Amino acid sequence: MNILIVEDEKRLASALKQILTEQKYMADVVYDGEDGLEYGLSGIYDVIILDVMIPFRDGFSVARELRKNKIQTPILMLTAKDTVGDKVSGLDSGADDYMTKPFAPEELLARIKALTRRKGEVILDESSFGDFQFNASTGMLSKGSKSVHLNFKEAEIMKLLIANRDIIISKEDIITKVWGYDSDAGSNNVEAYVSFLRRKLNFIQSTSEIKAIKKVGYRLESRDD
Amino acid sequence: MNILIVEDEKRLASALKQILTEQKYMADVVYDGEDGLEYGLSGIYDVIILDVMIPFRDGFSVARELRKNKIQTPILMLTAKDTVGDKVSGLDSGADDYMTKPFAPEELLARIKALTRRKGEVILDESSFGDFQFNASTGMLSKGSKSVHLNFKEAEIMKLLIANRDIIISKEDIITKVWGYDSDAGSNNVEAYVSFLRRKLNFIQSTSEIKAIKKVGYRLESRDD
DNA sequence: GACAAGCCTTAAAAAATCCATAAAGACCAA
DNA sequence: TTGGTCTTTATGGATTTTTTAAGGCTTGTC
Questions:
Q1: Which of residues 195-214 of B touch strand D (CB under 7 A)?
Q2: Closest to B156 (Cα-Cα) out of B130, B117, B194, B210
């Protein structure tokens, strides 16, 4: 899966690239609209992430030009928080989806997944670990007849823990993935949420546990050693 | 079911095609009036979606010419919002229905369904969920002897909720499907309608409820736990 | 044992989200 | 135009989520 990133803010661009390559996407980065258009016209990409405010040629223009040239690659448009009107212009100019900065990596990945999902394909976001199940789309954590609802951030963290199964995930990772690349959440935020999750795992009487590894991070473990 | 789309705005044309193919319709697209006429004359289509403002030969003319050649295929005419007078000309020229741009996908599908419904054919767009029934064609929501009428938007939202049964549907989704892809309706609009629906569900004494999942969306649930 | 560092839990404050309702506006038919 | 219905917008309050902060616990070191 090839993704083109058109973003002039170096810091954000490289963060994006990192998020994507971590998920095994191939990502190319260009820093202005002219290059974005040229690369996009090649037609080799599966998704184009396109910032609106970029040098030489803005994102709307790039999108329009691509569509004019019959390039149907899904476009995910990035814009600053407050420019709500951009949404309309964005979709009008041919973008398929639209995301305001700043955003959490998880959201980015979800949107890319949605854009590349074939129509009609049904996805069940149900996973199980150890002795419990977690349904990511409803946020329900359950074991047997017991179940609890996880709120948004709890669910995000649980997803990460399950996705990373028996490997250790650092607090830093959790922060950047759940709170976003430029959030100012600290390690205590993660600790608090881990605590909430433990209480809920406990409530459903799961024997699995979120283990802390000092100075390294957390790991979800099932107790069948 | 074969549908012909005659629309020169590439983006809209492909959006239309996508909406239709998602519903298992076969859709062909042509980009001007000449082609539209030629394809339409083949008589193989069950519906023709015809934009008024298209190159070479406008929609009215295409419609008239088709009718002159005894082609009875139902025609759904598309025109821009403000040209209200077109409605008359459209129906005069032989169109069967008429829709202003922009429109919500749900509306398009409803109109096509209406056009392809054979006269006298009785359709029961009746669905039930939990302890109540909803008749999508009359907009009647009922349980036992109690019933209320749902107005257009209430009905659209109810349809979505029922169609999505126990899965969560996001406000964004509801907005794009009910208000249209470039509307500027906000989450408050959805909230207001959900509130209306709850009141009506309550009025007919249904025990089903529309549950909100914070930061995620809504889900219709029947209370039989 | 005393200390420090990192982690845990909890309560409470702050913020975000959702709710119901009212009021204003738009639309349509008579 | 007027009255009625449908839709949008605004508001304050209720609820839930998220953040913050403080003190306690555990582990490792001296």
A1: 214
A2: B194
